[in-house]
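Suppose a colleague, Dr. K., hands you the sequence of a protein chain of 342 amino acids and asks what its three-dimensional shape might be. Before reaching for any lab equipment, you can write down a predicted structure in token form. Begin with the sequence itself:
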Amino acid sequence: MRDRGSLLMIALSCLIVLVSGIALGTGATGVPLARILSIITDHASVPAGDALIILQVRLPRLLLGLLIGAALACSGALMQGLFRNPLADPGLVGVSAGAALAAGTTIVVGDALLAPVMGPLPFTALPVGAFVGGLITTFGLYLVATRHGRTSVAMMLLAGVAFGALSGALMGFLSYLSDDRQLRDLSFWSLGSLSGATWTKVAVATPLILPVLLGMPFLARGLNALSLGEAEAFHLGISVQRVKAVAILLVAIAVGASVACSGMIGFVGIVVPHVLRLTVGPDHRTLLPASAMLGAALLVAADTVARTIAAPAELPIGILTAAFGAPFFLWLLLRRHGGIAL
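The predicted structure, expressed as tokens, is then:
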């Protein structure tokens, strides 16, 4: 199993390099691989237009896609281990719903009330609002699900579903209040996209997402023990409550930052961990880093397709992930008929 895991890591590393090269070279203006390497190493010797496209447009978009894909997939693996259910998804705990609601409020209410007083809102207002909304939502759900120092993951799941429904209703109300421009912004946000990637967003997302990705594998032993049940994990010396609290906090930060930078991108957190679990098994020591790598490669590949499938227009990436992820989710439900439990 260890040899299989090592081979998988090597294969995933090669896959990331491959999709990254394709993503940098593909677009309205094609750039050969040799020129891309020259641009990255010594961009003074290449045409200024190509250097501008690679360094200011495609490279930050690539890095942001790698970060967000890794965050969503690794968060999905963490949630599935915490809930002991391969159908769990980061969106189910309410983080995405809270972030989306905060973003929608910023777009509609902030633009209508604050812009006339303070002038145009800074471009950082939307991601900051979404991130703070995701954290506040997760903290509220954690308080609801915690009684006498113990957190019920089933209660958090149900509360997350309820809050997701409430957020959907409030987002509909915001859509009703919005004007044409605000409605376009809301629609674009809800579909998800990496088109707004900049070095500023990369600089903001990296210190939030990267430490989370590096910290998640340290929960592998606790998640492996939790797969046997909470009582068994406790008798194995695992601090069950601490594992739950840390896992929920890490997912809140990773998913909140991802939604803040790219909008709503679904199904990555379900599809990637389940595919890898079928390949390398349920050991989280391998599953968590492998999920991060495959999720990064998958999202970059999906973004490349979204940029080229309807060129010169750009298809929101959330449409692609939903189009492929929803049938996979339905197949997973049918495959596990009658065997799903909270």
